[in-house]
Amino acid sequence: MSPTSTAKAGPRPAETGPGSAPGSGAGTGPDDGPAAALRRTWRKASPYAYIAPFFTLFLAFGLFPLLYTAFVSLYRVELQTSGEMQWRGIANYTALFADEYFWISLRNTFTIGVLSTVPQLAMALGLAHLLNYKLRGRTFIRTAVLLPYATSVAAATLVFAQLFGRDFGLINYVIGLIGVDPVDWQTGTVASQIAVSSIVIWRWTGYNALIYLAGMQSIPHELYEAAGMDGASRWRQFIHVTLPGLRPTIVFTVIISTIGATQLFGEPLLFEGSISGGISHQYQTLGLYMYEQGWGFFHLGRAAAIAWVMFVLIVVLVGVNALIARRRARKEAGR
Amino acid sequence: MTALAPPPTSPAKRRPPRERPGKHPWLRKGSGAGKTMTGGWIAYLILGFALLISAFPFYWTIVAASRSNADLAQVPPSLLPGPNLMKNVEAVLEEADIGKALLNSLIVSGAITVGTVLSCTLAGFAFAKLKFRGRSALLTLTIGTMMIPPQLGVIPLFMLIAELQWVNQLQAVILPGLVSAFGVFFMRQYLIQSLPDELIEAARVDGASTARIFWSIVIPIARPGMAVLGMLTFMTAWNDFFWPVIALSSQEPTVQVALRQLGGGYVNDQSVIMAGTLLGTLPVLLVFGLLGRQIVGGIMQGAVKG
Question: pTM score > 0.95 for this model?
Answer without folding.
Answer: no
